[in-house]
Amino acid sequence: MKIQAAITPAANAPFTLAEVELDAPRPDEVLVRIVGAGLCHTDLVAAEGMMPIALPAVLGHEGAGVVEQVGAQVTKVQPGDAVAITFTSCGHCPRCASHEPAYCHAMGQLNFTGLRADGSRSLVAGGQRISGSFFGQSSFATHALASERNVVKVAPGVPLEIAGTLGCGVQTGAGAIMRSLQCPAGSSLLITGGGAVGLSAVMGAVIQGCAHVVVLEPNAARREMALSLGATLAIDPRAEADWVAAVRAVLPTGVDFMLDTSGIPAVIERVPQLLAPKGTFGFVGVPPAHAADLALPGTLREAMRSGFTYRGIIEGDSDPDTFIPQLMALYLQGRFPFDRLVTTYPLADINRAVAEQQQGLCIKPVLLP
Q1: What percent of the chain has pLDDT over 90?
Q2: 215 — phi, psi (to 5°)?
Q3: Which regions span the lipid bilayer (predicted)?
Q4: How far apart are CA 139 and CA 175, in angstroms?
Q5: What is the pLDDT of residue 359?
Q6: I want to staple 193 with a disulfide (CB 3.0 to 4.6 A). Which of 198, 269, 289, 317 is the partner?
Q7: Separation between Cα atoms, residue 45 and residue 367, nearest integer Å
Q8: Beta bridge partners of 364
Q9: Residue 270 CB: number of other CB atoms within 10 A?
């Protein structure tokens, strides 16, 4: 079928809206009419040519919409169902069997290559096959193909156009606190970076009952948002000559937990100065390419002496079929207001959305076909 999609034609090139041909759903696939798709930093990393997906490609991996057609093998959803689309997984490796699909053995192949599991491409543009199936969806478009494993029904009362943000960035931040680190009530937490992931972590920390939630973020509007969502302190690293000392002034023995969403080497290198004994450092931020060889902070001796734990986190350790419905239920209870992070844009204005996100004028852009 012919659809409209935002194509990434080449590395670092602007997105281009164009007509492309999308395959009909195979027996194990679900055709979704996209109502909204979140714009995530991972999309921009892919658009810079820093991921395995070959360009040109249709990106987008936080889609939500209405099921229009299902393959013969699909039983989880039916036409007319409202769904959010998340990352995909194989369903049969040891990690999937233990309900840890974020660590699926085929995570890279299924989500980052732009190919189906069998190596085929689902999109045609200009008479040639181009990459799709990004995170099992490619939702910067009017329609996308997904599978049973990466669609989750959207609860009534949850705004469908923004529900897709739960599928990656929001569940990564909230899940890092609620699932990966499992911060207990009364604990202290430092979050470095106040974007959508970091602010979702703030909301997760409030739900967990953390006593101290400190956010390090240079953007004033995002600091204000962090405080309004429940952070107990927001620090501007540009205004504090020694921001580590500012954290220590409030928490003299250090923080129990630290979550980095920034990927900034100068931040990551300060971790040993911030953690309390037996503290845990969780990281979802990816350092820039020139810092690819950055070692995790602290030597083995330092980690052993203080009992530190360094914890890499993917997708907030989410099992989407259970965690996304949990977040939706919390939203409906008024306890997880992720909608406050969102600014919507027409899909045709995707390049403006990218620019305004990079300028700090919005937190979580959502594109509306």
Answers
A1: 92
A2: -120, 130
A3: none
A4: 23
A5: 95
A6: 198
A7: 18
A8: 342
A9: 18
For the ranges 8-22, 138-152, 272-286, the lowest mean pLDDT is seen at: 272-286
List of E strands, 123-266: 123-125, 128-130, 143-147, 151-153, 188-192, 212-216, 233-235, 255-260
Is residue 162 within 8 A of residue 36, CB to CB? The reply is yes
Label residue 58 exposed, middle or buried (CB < 10 Å: 0-12, 13-18, 19+). buried
Q: Which fold has domain 176-313?
A: Rossmann fold (3.40.50)
* List of residues 6+ apart from 161 with CB closer than 8 A: 35, 36, 64, 344, 366, 368
What local confidence, expressed as pLDDT, does residue 302 receive? Answer: 78
Q: Is 6 within 8 Å of 60 (Cβ atoms)?
A: yes
pLDDT score for 159:
98
| pLDDT for the residue numbered 3 | 98
CA torsion 223→176→254→249, rounded to 10°? 10
Residue type, 369: P
CB atoms within 10 A of CB 64: 30
Sequence ranges of the domains in the chain: 2-167+337-368, 176-313
Give residue-wise pLDDT tens across range 276-315: 999 999 999 766 655 555 666 666 777 788 999 999 999 9
Greatest distance between any 2 Cα atoms in the chain: 63
Single-letter code of the amino acid located at 327: L
Q: How far is CA 315 from CA 42, 87, 148, 163, 312, in A?
A: 12, 8, 18, 16, 10
Bridge pairing between strands 233-235 and 255-260: unpaired
Q: Distance from first CA to last CA of the chain, Å, rounded? A: 16
Both tokens of residue 55?
């360009």
